[in-house]
Amino acid sequence: MAIQTQYSGPARVRLSLNDPTVRAVVYQVLVIGAVLGLGWYLVSNTLDNLQRQAIATGFDFLNREASFGIGESLIDYSPRDTYGQAFVVGVLNTLKVSLIGIVLATIIGAVVGIARLSTNWLLARLATTYVEIIRNIPPLLQLFVWYAVITESMPPVRQAFNPLPGVFLSQRGITVPVPAADPVWTWVFIAFLLGFAASLIVGKWAKIRQAQTGQPFPIAGASVVLMLGLPLIAYVAGGAPSVMDVPKLQGFNFVGGLVLTPEFAAILFGLSIYTAAFIAEIVRGGILAVSYGQSEAAAALGLKRGHALRLVILPQALRVIVPPTTSQFLNLTKNSSLALAIGYPDLVSILNTTINQTGQAIEGVAMIMGSYLAISLSISLFMNWYNKRIALVER
Amino acid sequence: MAENVHTAPATVERPPALTLGPIGWLRANLFNTWYNAILTILIAWALFSIVPPLLRWAIANASGFDATSQQCRAASGACWAFVSEKLRFILFGTFPYDEQWRPLVAVAIIIMTLAAAANRRFWKPWFVAVALGALALVGVLMWGGAFGLTYVENSLWGGLPLTLILSVLGLSVAFPFSILLALGRRSDMPVVRAFSVAYIELIRGVPLVSLLFMASVMLPLFLPTGVTIDKLLRAIVAFILFEAAYMAEAIRGGLQAMPKGQYEAADALGLNYWQAMRKIILPQALAISIPPLVNTFISTFKDTSLVIIIGLYDLLGTAKAALSDPAWRGFYREAYLFIGVIYWCFCFSMSKYSRWLEKDLYRGHRR
Predict the structure, then answer these.
(1) Structural domain tally of chain B?
(2) Are residues B209 and A338, on separate chains, in Cβ contact within 8 Å?
């Protein structure tokens, strides 16, 4: 008996809401419609309002004279410069406080995280207290406290505290002498970069050689020699300039030297100490996540304690530590916008002044958001690259 | 064999004195290695040079609660008179002085509702109605204008009630949106997914300050001519936009933790998407996302202090305003310590709760 199968050609396409594919298309068209409708509504209202209030649009204002001063700047800036230049100053100030803050927070966080696991009862309790107090107080309040401590407990400029020759502590911040400008310092910096690159290459070569021959190479020592030796050679070859730029009291403030302003110090300490409390918890969790058997296995292989930590424990702990630490770095960067509240001229506070002077709120807010998105994205990309490097390679 | 039999009583060996008791504890926990011994001595010295002066400042040398500011300035210790003088202003802001029992009751209602919500017995649908009722009651108490209460406009609100209202209202309004965003991010429909991802990542990539800015300077431009919204509402809108993105990520974590079998079982039962979500997936996913949601709430609670930037007076704002009184200028230590303790109590108890809940919810996974 042959089984008769009926074949009635290709299935008829019926458009019905009972078909999930059709439904999906309908839903998505509705979503697009709703978003476009909302967007059109907001844009038309905005255009209407802008026209009625006679507010200019566009980014032409960036070429106009800013005519406001900025307390501290990494590049030359004067009130006669444009809004565009003021914006660049703001971006650089934000980057400065974020990058230094990230380094500082990582160091403090790692130390406190390890201290929480210490066998020393007093140290572990102290670290726990630090984490529990700092994590549970708003960062803005902490910034205010730091700012008040720095400005109110320091002597006025005239009676500046002078612990070392050339170092002055006062309400205007900390001033320290720095070597006077000289082209030699540029060469020293270039030599340092060269030394850094060379030690990377030596490290790579040593790794390959050890894999082939089993011969270890003192990479750490070689790197130190390269990174310190090359700049030293450049310094001596350039005539070893020894002129220092010493801060001097002139009128109501210090002139010369390197100044750590109270605003910068407050935001740097406040953010680093706040973020470090979160990083400490991540570090502690990461170390605890490596099972004790790993340490025992390393000991059974005959590795010394330092080697066991560097080659066995740390690589596994880092896998747990890096992803959440990335988001803490992003938080620190975003929190640097609190600078506005204590008067550090970061990106947000400079654009705030710009908005107040020009009235161009939409462009200003768009520039704030765009800059932070760009910074956040770069940090994410870098940390994702690093995370991929240390991720578990499964065979 | 008599010579093998011990007749003398066995000597009872006492454990070495140095491994037991307080001395043993000290040796094991404070002086177990040479570097720990050095550390212990250093820390003890640091604590000894910090803690007694601090206590002398806060208690022994402090002037009384009813001292005048001149007496305070003469004394070397803390000036708690500043806090007692400004207590009601710091806690309730510029709310009419004789009516300040109303924000007090409102704060009590919010705290009690939060405490009840922490109890798993109340995780039932009817509790939503209770919470909404409590919120309405808070609104009536704060605004007044009904039941014989005089009307108080919300520009006069400040202090602790404002901090609590901003964080609680932002969270509860954003919650339904965040569920939709989390589901959208895991949807099979590319357009819905793209919009959800774009929204969440955009909001999470920018600081809250910029959203507050946007709400305070751009929101009025977005609205049709003639419609105005006050400062408080603008801040709440910013918090809702902000919270929705962060909570969506917390809920997405819960959705991702659901085993695939749950989705397949729902399909096998013939449930459609919304039925499956409502009856099977979300009840389980939301329960396990509660600890991260509580953590989001804690950071919102801390972030409410940022409204000072757009000119609202929350707890931090009223403390700063109290400090600008010329008669009491300079007592920032007392003011910041006082509100720091309030913030800390709220955040610390919530974070303890979140950690306890996490352990409690994962009891089945524990070995």
Answers:
(1) 1
(2) yes
